[in-house]
Amino acid sequence: MAIITVFGATGYAGGHITDEALRRGHEVIAVNRTGSAEARAGVTPLAGSVDDESLVRELAAKSDVLVIAVHGSADGEPFLLPLVPSLLKAAAEGGARIGVVGGAGSLHVAEGGPRLVDTPDFPDAYKPEASTHADVLEALRAADIDVDWFYVSPAAEFGAWAPGERTGSFRLGGDVLVADADGKSSISGADYAIAFVDEIDTPAHRKARFTVAY
Fold this sequence. Notes:
214 residues; alpha/beta; Rossmann fold; eight-stranded mixed β-sheet; 5 helices
């Protein structure tokens, strides 16, 4: 059993990761700004935010993994990127691993091809979020600190607007968008969470990004 702190535990990805972690017998500290996560067996709801450095340090010291399932930007401005150094420092001091719920925008559409966020059809409204999360990934890769982290990019279609079902069947990839024979790239919240918690249970991507899709 691991102790997993989930920042953004009541969000779409964070909620599914919390559910999957509980299904496997892990203990979850469920953090959101209001402390409104459901109080149930295995869950400790906690009011707080990932931008509270003292709270992050406290939780890193008592957790095996810090899951960062929060928006990359706020009001069109970077939110998560400036926090990367303090997150890494807290994890290093506390001996925790960091797992980041990333975005699909930083994935390349093909080997040697452009990133999804740089393609002509990528919606302008989503570019600040996608670009910031891409910068978060690069900051993690460039960090000169002994912290084990992983970053999981979902498929292009991922979110409450396309919830899907829990199938337990999916494919993993690296830095290239994974799509089916018809060019569709999608993953349900539940199956994304399976891949995410698999990485917690059996680490295979250390200081690396991977992606999951059908």
